[in-house]
Write a structure and sequence with these properties.
The complex is a heterodimer. By secondary structure, chain A is mainly β. In chain A, 0% of the residues lie in helices and 58% in strands. Chain B starts with a strand and ends with a strand. The chains are: A mainly beta, B mainly beta.
Chain lengths: 113, 114
Amino acid sequence: KQEVTQIPAALSVPEGENLVLNCSFTDSAIYNLQWFRQDPGKGLTSLLLIQSSQREQTSGRLNASLDKSSGRSTLYIAASQPGDSATYLCAVRPLDSGYALNFGKGTSLLVTP
Amino acid sequence: KAGVTQTPRYLIKTRGQQVTLSCSPISGHRSVSWYQQTPGQGLQFLFEYFSETQRNKGNFPGRFSGRQFSNSRSEMNVSTLELGDSALYLCASSLGGQVLDGYTFGSGTRLTVV
């Protein structure tokens, strides 16, 4: 069974810092990996989708990398802002799960002014 | 374009009752998935529908059921509600034709069972 782990569970940084969020998964047999953002009490906002054949994806200040063989992905946030404060979730789509995503528990990020 | 729409946003129900949640996917998306989110278990997959057919089901009891209509809108039903069913229920849509497709989530329905 695919297990997805996100470390750290919580992170507090001052505004302007560059930061890295980590996601690891136990089975490298995946179609893709997707990073989401969730604000308190709200739904998920898709940030980046990386296919298994890709190494990274970029969108604005966000960059996500994927090392499928080692079962790791990182989300890099450049020049963090208070508006980046949210919970960040990664989800993998395993080859054997059909159309179900396996989620990590998330990293709760607080960016202080 | 309009995103994924879930209704209602909030629900309070009593133990033993049943509830129906609705999800309208992005126009042109034919796949709808449902997830349950709780503080303890995180996000767990319930089921996925494509062209009115259930393609995938998670490990939830039979009290949880769903369906999809010809216009791709989906409903999820929970019967004989238990306190542990209190959660945020999220719906996600995708084009559905390819396993490489990404998902777009709605804002969720917050269900409280008392």
